[in-house]
Amino acid sequence: MEDIIKLLSQTINVTPNYKPDLCLAVKQSRTACSACSEVCPHEAITLTSQVEIDEVDCTGCGLCVRSCPSYALETNETLKSVTHLRCSQVDGEAAQIHCFGRLGATDLLKLSDDSSHLHLGRSNCSECPIGSDAVIGAVEDEISVAKKLANVCGQEITIEFCSVESMPQDVDDSNLSRRDLFRQSIKGLQQATAIALSPLDPGDETNGLPNELRQRYFVLDNANLAPTTQVPWVLPRISDGCIMCPVCTQVCPTNAFHRTFNPKPDEGAVLELDPGSCMGCDACVQACPINVITLDDKVTWGELSNKTIEAFHKPPDPDTADTIPR
Description:
By secondary structure, this protein is an alpha/beta fold. 29% of the residues lie in helices and 19% in strands.
């Protein structure tokens, strides 16, 4: 069975797309990150000077994509809104996806665009020839993010993800009661869900973010959020003690950090961050030589949508001004 799965995988090309410029193993070193090779259930990934995926052994489960902290691996799914979706190992007439590990949070939002209730039917992942039981945790993490995105946009979605033997076709909208239809109409009038919860546009590519994060940003950007609204995003925080060395600016895959050395001696130096370009990949945290960087998930929309924020300000010090690494 596993050999058949691999043959079919080659036929439909389920191997993830790889972007070396975002890869931490390329940006830093092979020892900096090996998440994709560690999570692959079929040992299809080898780390050399970059990530190499064996198209024969890769079954397209998507676990490497979900585990990559810098989104250097991506899948391209053609999705439409449904109420029921099954994995390829489940019998039935419902819409099918190769493996649920291939779905990101915005994919789930797109699937649930016309309904507030989405049913995902999986097989026994621990015995699956495509993925492994790690798919369950990966999908549950994406479901959590999707719900947070929907909640921020004023919506509530229910996503059921469970093991089933078979799954019937989508429930036809004509079977909805008049009350259900009325509720959906009111909900549609109250919120611009077609805009806020339809991540069809990848957003502005100029910020250097990968597709999944661009789509998350797109969802938030079209929700008309108040600046004080907390959003599901993470940003680095710099604590006292930063020596303004260039390490964080060098390891960032999207060049979100910038150092500014003011020409006036009484203004000191500033470490600036472009929040909309930050992926929260943890590269700066791991690379910081004095461990003053942490990731914070308490982020507001006003902060995230700001073009540049001051991450750290080093006051002028005549005794050390000439020792700051440039």
